[in-house]
Design brief:
Glutaminyl-peptide cyclotransferase, mainly beta, Neuraminidase, four-stranded antiparallel sheet
Length: 267
Amino acid sequence: MKRASTLLAAAAAVAACAPGTADRAGDGAQASSGQGVEQLRVQVERELPHDETAFTQGLEFAGETLYEGTGRNGESKLTAGPAGRPPERSVDLPDEFFGEGITVTGSRVWQLTWTSGVAIERDADTLAERRRVSYDGEGWGLCDQEDRLVMSDGSATLTFRDPETFAAQGSVEVTEAGSPVEGLNELECAGGDVYANVWQTEDIVRIDPGDGRVTARIDASGLLEEGEVTSPEAVLNGIAAYPGSDRFLITGKLWPKMFRVTFVPAN
């Protein structure tokens, strides 16, 4: 969970995942699983500046515009503008809302809240609020597969939702080697797959949304220098696919940088 009471646990997790110290399964473990899970890593092409005060919860491109949703009560907002530059548009959430994942679908942006059970529909151009819709449980990540939305709640379950009404349309459990993958956080839909940050780790998993099977695990460790991690909450969270390419933009909560990357074999 993301509550203040877990800061000590988060600190331990960040320390365990500090650059160069992550303990990861090798090729032998992959082969023994028999699941054909690709082992990938990030290959950095470019660094871009990022607002280090942004508690990033959602990141997504629509054309050349980068949308970013941030969290924390009294600090949550949604911004839009060119990647790596100050936002051209910004809107604050009411103080009672802890902002979470976002996605752009058509002319609308959906923005989740963490424990309020409220999804906010906004105009994609102006970011103005259009309406609010209720849902059960927590909201973490969100992405758009054109005919449906995919939503995470911090568990191993992904819920599918109608992009216009936000009504639930079923769900799938995400598994790797037959075991549930908990902590699914920020999501990105790309090429028919769903990519998910795994909370409190430096891993991203690629998921087949048809059966929930993890088809690749991506090692995103070592992007920041040790001195650049200034808070136990500064964990990897934020993945956006560049439209029409195999590149992704990734960042983290309170990170001073974003990284344009491709995913290449871990070997």
